[in-house]
Structures are given as structure tokens and as C-alpha cells.
Amino acid sequence: MRAAGYAEGRQASHRRLSTSHCLFTGAAPMLSQETLESYRKMTPGERLELALRMTDENIPALFDGSPALVDRRFELLKRENDQRNHNMLTAIARTRKKP
User: Fold this and answer.
1) End-to-end CA, the chain
2) Helix 67-96 vs helix 44-62: angle between axes, to the nearest 10 degrees?
3) Radius of gyration of the chain, Cα coordinates, nearest whole angstrom
């Protein structure tokens, strides 16, 4: 019974996703409109507190496993961050091009 409720909740959550795309990267959004709106309503201090709490909760998992596995995780994070930065800089450069 509980699994069925979970699946229904997941489907409803997918239906709530926005069909718009990220201004900078062109990627489809990962969060529902409700989640984005509640995040926008937070104060900067509340957003910082949320980010720090999430970081604290997830750091142990980053270091779980063999040294080689940990190295691969951090290399993946670095590649993802580099790609995200590249995409944002490319989008910013497009907006500054002269006609």
C-alpha cells in the first residue's frame, strides 16, 4: 500500500515540473515549480542555512568507500562543476555579443 502511494506521489511530482528550460544552460529544470517558489521566498540567510545543512548531511557519503572511489567521486564533481561554469560563461558571453 505504501509503495503505491509513493509511486503516485512521484508521478504527481513529475507532472508539476515546469516545461521551461534554464536560461543559462538550456537544461530542463530538476525541481518542481512549488519547490522553486518556496526557495525564492526564503531569505538569503535561510537559503544559506539550507545549503550548509545539506552539505553537512551529505559529506560523510562523499568519503565513504575506498580511496579510489572517493577520488572518482571528486573528479566527477569537478567535471560537473567545470561544465556548469562553462555553460554559464558561454550563455553570458552570448548575451554580451554586439549585433
Assistant:
1) 60
2) 140
3) 18
pLDDT tens, position by position, 14-46: 333 334 445 445 566 677 889 889 989 999 999
Residue 68 carries which side chain, given as an amino acid letter? A
Distance, in Å, from the CA atom of 33 to the CA atom of 11, rounded to the nearest integer, reads 15
Q: By CB neighbour count within 10 A (0-12 exposed, 13-18 middle, 19+ buried), where does 86 fall?
A: exposed
Give which of 57, 78, 74, 55 is closest to 65, Cα–Cα. Answer: 74
Cβ-proximal residues to 22 (8 Å cutoff; 6+ apart), any chain:
28, 29
pTM, rounded to two decimals: 0.51
Q: Which sign, positive or negative, has the C-alpha torsion 30, 33, 35, 41? A: positive
